[in-house]
Amino acid sequence: MTIRGRLALSFFAVLALFGATLGVYLWSAHLRDVTMKRLDRTLKRQVILATIRQDLDNLHKQVSLLSEVEADAAQTPPDPGARQSFDARLDSVANQIQAFKALSEPEDKQAVVGLESNYSSLQHAWKTFYDYLGVEQTWAVASAAKADPLSFRLQTQILPEIEALEKDRVRIVEASLARVERLTNRISSSTFLVSIFFAAIVAILISRSIGRGFRELQHGTDLIGSMNLDHRITLNSKDELGQFARSFNTMTERLHLARKQLTAANEELERRNQEIRERQAQELTMAATIQQGLMAVRIPELSFASIRARNISCTQIGGDFYDVVPVENGVAVIICDVSGKGISAAIMASMLQGMIRSELAAKVPLDLIVTEANRFFTQRDVAGKYATLCIVRLQPDGSCEYVNCGHVAPVLVNSSGGVQRLHSNNPPVGLLPMMQFGALRCGLSPGERIVLVTDGVTEAASADEYEFGDERLQTYAGANDAFETLFAEVTKFCGDTPLNDDCTVVEIVFSGTERAGKASAPLSQEVLR
Fold first, then answer.
1. What is the distance between the alpha carbons of residues 300 and 215, in angstroms, rounded to a whole number?
2. Percentage of the chain with pLDDT > 70?
3. What is d(CA 214, CA 221) in angstroms, rounded to the nearest whole number?
4. Interatomic CA distance for residues 327 and 324, integer angstroms
5. pTM of the model
6. Residue 61 or 28, more confident
7. 81 Cβ partners below 8 Å, 6+ apart?
8. How many helices (H) and strands (E) does the chain have?
9. What is the 3-state composition of the chain as percent helix, strand, coil, each rounded to the nearest 5?
10. Cα(233)–Cα(329) distance, rounded to whole angstroms?
């Protein structure tokens, strides 16, 4: 019997075996399909539950934030657009609950009804809160207080119970999948063992006729497998093995040619990659140079005050900046920290600096400057970027107006070394849409100074991962030479630990040529609108 005949006989035997295996496989595939559909429904419900939990948490935080902000501000009805957005988010959660209900199992009916009922009450309470927000603050706070237990119950009792039920279902489905998998593995193993048996018989029957050919092929493939592509298999027979040997030799020649081409291509690719790396390094250096040029600050000589400032960047391109802008009847000092680092933070910092300088030149009030900047960035997709900033406008008579948007509170140091903080409740710029910002006033006496820093100073970490902190800031800000002392102490505190954020320090010392002898105005002045 020829090799072809023997192989044909073996083929039909194995084919019959595979036919039986196919039937079992189709049966197990049906079981897997049913199980996977159950698992898919369960996973979809879990995803919906996670989305509901996240949206409820975000809505709860928004209501809490609005309650806190409006409690300290004048009663003003909320913007209709913000109300419409809030209602849309409430409706989105309701739609997600309906989607979950559509996917739920019959035995989950009671839990789903409880979820739907509790959220309906919570939705009504939150809408009532928004109806009274800025109109009747007492009722708004009462509505928010009524909603808190409902929100707490949803997030800590109802949703966790449903999620636990879904996790149990996942475990059940996974166990079912495991059983199907074990059955399939057993059948596959049996098929494999039987196939080995038939292969052994075929090998014994044809070993005498093709033994020499296989040895030669094995020797050739070992050499070719070890990348000896100059070797050729010398098998001159005209049967199937001879044809296979010739095909192997052809493949070896092509592999040899392909290896040469691949080596040349890799060398060219490495050369181009090196060029790209060099070009990127040049562009990054150029971007850093451009940023430094755009943000270079020339501090003016003032008759009533002296200003010192310095920025230490932890990367080649940073997100911190400061600026000193002469304005009518005084000077304005800006310090800003954009979230993140690198080119994206530098772009936002450059835009903010340009906007603020132009608004100051146009004599726009400080609160309107940050309000417009906040509106500009929240109405655009800036990949979650936001900025903390503080603007201080000082006049020759010591009158000081400032607006602080989520920034480190400036330190006011009196002539005797006592310190106070210029706090403000404004949020960062670019974080909350339709936000109204407020400015504050204070007064300076001769010899008093204001020290402004970014959080790179207070959050500078030591080798033990301790932060520099506000207490050290206040202590060293009261030193005789606070400007140099702060940098020296931060460097000493960090030691060999590199900075993890940009550090910026600005010091304003009021000399009081036009207001000498007057006492400082209290810091708790009325917010400017």
1. 90
2. 83
3. 10
4. 10
5. 0.48
6. 61
7. 434
8. 11, 10
9. 60, 15, 25
10. 95
